[in-house]
Design brief:
7% of the residues are buried. With 107 residues, this protein is mainly alpha-helical. It is extended and about 50 Å long. α1 runs parallel beside α2. The longest helix is centred in the N-terminal third of the chain and has 20 residues.
């Protein structure tokens, strides 16, 4: 089990680093959030595969990494209230930008 989990963490680190290093323009840093910020072997592997790119956490920037999902849903809710499309068709495969969600009043 230990070897399988280590292999999975290594695969995730390589996959993320490969995607980041292919970005154009090249990023100046990588910002990490969520539970992975506590996974030290993952962070070490990601740092190694990112070569010289600084790897920061949102905690270091004043945003609790544990709040990632709550912040994302707050942003999506705000976009709905503003009637602003919150999807990127180039990322999601959607045919067009759409307003996501609905507001349903209590009965």
């Amino acid at each position: 089990l230990h070897d399988a989990l280590a292999t999975a963490a290594e695969a995730v680190a390589r996959s993320v680093a490969d995607a980041v290093l292919r970005l154009s323009p090249a990023p100046e840093e990588v910002i990490m959030s969520g539970g992975g910020v506590h996974h030290l072997p993952l962070i070490r592997s990601l740092t190694r595969h990112l070569h010289d790119l600084p790897l920061l956490t949102t905690d270091q920037l004043g945003v609790p990494s544990a709040a990632k999902e709550a912040i994302a849903f707050a942003l999506l809710g705000n976009a709905l209230l503003d009637r602003t499309p919150a999807n990127l068709p180039t990322c999601t495969g959607a045919a067009r930008p759409v307003i996501s969600g609905s507001i349903t009043p209590a009965p």
